Model the fold of this input.
Amino acid sequence: MPPSPRNRSDPDRRRADILEHATGLIGERGYYGFTVQELARRCGLSNPGLLYYFPSKHDLLIGVLDALQADETAAMTPIVEAALQKSSDAAEDRASVLNVLRMIVARAVERPLSGRLLAALQTESLDAGHPAHSWWRARETVLLNLFVKLVDGHVINPAASARQLLAMMDGLCLHWLRADQGFDVVSIWEDALIRLLPELHKADAG
Amino acid sequence: MPPSPRNRSDPDRRRADILEHATGLIGERGYYGFTVQELARRCGLSNPGLLYYFPSKHDLLIGVLDALQADETAAMTPIVEAALQKSSDAAEDRASVLNVLRMIVARAVERPLSGRLLAALQTESLDAGHPAHSWWRARETVLLNLFVKLVDGHVINPAASARQLLAMMDGLCLHWLRADQGFDVVSIWEDALIRLLPELHKADAG
Amino acid sequence: MPPSPRNRSDPDRRRADILEHATGLIGERGYYGFTVQELARRCGLSNPGLLYYFPSKHDLLIGVLDALQADETAAMTPIVEAALQKSSDAAEDRASVLNVLRMIVARAVERPLSGRLLAALQTESLDAGHPAHSWWRARETVLLNLFVKLVDGHVINPAASARQLLAMMDGLCLHWLRADQGFDVVSIWEDALIRLLPELHKADAG
Amino acid sequence: MPPSPRNRSDPDRRRADILEHATGLIGERGYYGFTVQELARRCGLSNPGLLYYFPSKHDLLIGVLDALQADETAAMTPIVEAALQKSSDAAEDRASVLNVLRMIVARAVERPLSGRLLAALQTESLDAGHPAHSWWRARETVLLNLFVKLVDGHVINPAASARQLLAMMDGLCLHWLRADQGFDVVSIWEDALIRLLPELHKADAG
DNA sequence: TATGAATGAGCATTCATTCAT
DNA sequence: GATGAATGAATGCTCATTCAT
Done:
């Protein structure tokens, strides 16, 4: 039999390709449920060909999480900083806070693969022995603190509101994925924002 | 030599014991992540001793889900039926609806094992190939329909409110689990209910 | 295809059988060079069927070494103790010492499998990272001390004589194995004993 | 981006460097236990960079053995020939024979790397399937014949004496390596020579 | 000369399951 | 009811080697 043709490709492209497929596959099956072999197959690579880029299953997970985080940071940092900087215009402040909250969900909708990955790991990593456990705890702390800061000064109980926002956001994304993206998350989220943060909306008159 | 002490015990008790441990273990690791062997160990049974009761890993999952559903149905049916039967007293109607919503979360808090299991499978079963996939879709449909019926007549957009309630509920339970049960879900949920369903609360005066 | 017939056999027999084949195979290829699969094949077992008895390759090695040591201890202890107990008859003392030295080689000749295993591990385990490294150091210390005690009182420099005896013994066994057992080790060893320990031989007149 | 610093160096130097590291590594782990990758790492070369010089693992072994033999031949030939040429002076003859025997061990002590390699392969290559098997048989024949010729005319049973010398030599070197070079092999060997070849020593007076 | 990228074969080990008792 | 013994299939990973540059 002829040795399978060597799929040489640009290393950067290959790495990115692997990360994308890994995101999809881990999103589908979770970390425990996916196999390196299946990922290699999807990437059109042999098993060791894949492990050349990420030496172990664990490293693959870390690679995916790092890429996701880098991406998120790059996209969100500017608008988050804008929202945290109190201006002299109260209405503008409120708008920029809502902007961040809307953007997070909008991004999740535009990137269903990442959303799916986050959903999958969110529960799988509840267990202390899971390789993404600490990554998730850190992420949650950061997000919760961010939400607290965002709504602080606008609502009576920032901690409670932050939790509710985070819970609603995660829950909606989850249902949206399970419903095969069969409803309009964005508008339901907008509506939820009005109900959960009325103080930030009646503002137009302020 | 004494033949290893065969742990003979009442079959029904054994079955219940297995289901309980299975609930815990699948909750910790998910369906893909747990092993029959580990479950057998926790039950103090040999590997085939366990499979005598549930002939396969898949059957174990079904057994757990069926038990959970039976339990849930038994507990919720009466108060759900009470809430769905419109009485002549509007305030009472509203109270009974809120009662159902509060009870669902209260039950989850009292049964962290089941809550954990539901959380774990909720995302793992997003994939169409997962053995609990259709079970979850069915469950979601039922719950969503129930919520719609519950709030119908009280709010402007029952479908949207139902989704928000479901999302908030699932999201809060999830965060509560990840936070090692480190905040008061019940009160946050109560507070969320006030915000998401103001129509059902201002009612006392109505 | 029909599932291969299950080779059920008496567990004790099986264990002994595995140990014997393992001794042979590790003797042939060394610890690094042998594979669990090949051993399973030789035992007429599937791969996991073998690992049922010894859960890992490392455990196999330990099992083999323990068995070998137990066997050796059982066989040598009586004559060693006899040799170490000084009697009133000097000639008898000398004879019992020589008896031990002859017996060790005689046993190696009768058990070429064990001899081969010892030879293989002797050098392979020189490396500090080898799983039998410490086992061998312990063995060497014990043997050297034994030899020192055996010849003490009979020769001028017991430490040097002990080393020479040990070296000659190991070297002869090694060459005998490499020569496909093509010369008479026993008689060469007897002859070497006369040269290395003349004090113990001229004794007849003593 | 700068193309990774290609470690270009003088090919002969490189070859020698590889052989030295290979000697060390094979000595540590044996042929089965060492990996081409680890050797490449120690040489500061990429995996294929190493295989450029020795196209396969097997070729590496052969290269090492050939180098070792060439070295040995170059060093020993003169004194061996001197020892084999019977002169008119018997005492001188005896001295030159002892000189060879002393020199062999002295060389091993000065070159612990080669000594270790020889020790490692000595037992590993007992197996007929080992790539150095026939090399070792040849070496043994040559050495044994040499020893026989050396002691012929001086001792009663040259074949037996030759075997004993060879065994003692190999055994002492082995123990010396295992004892972390913690005793004086040379003097123990000298002492052994006196015991094994008294005829060659009392000679001074002869 | 030397490398980065890739591969087929094989490794120890684990898994869900089955058989015989 | 429950077990010890055994299995086929798969898993993550490593190995020596090769290709293209």
Summary: Residues 3-4, 6-9, 11, 14, 45-49, 52-53 of chain A lie near DNA strand E (CB under 10 Å from a C1'). The mean pLDDT of chain A is 93. Chains A and C do not touch (no CB pair under 8 Å). The first helix of chain A runs from residue 11 to 33.
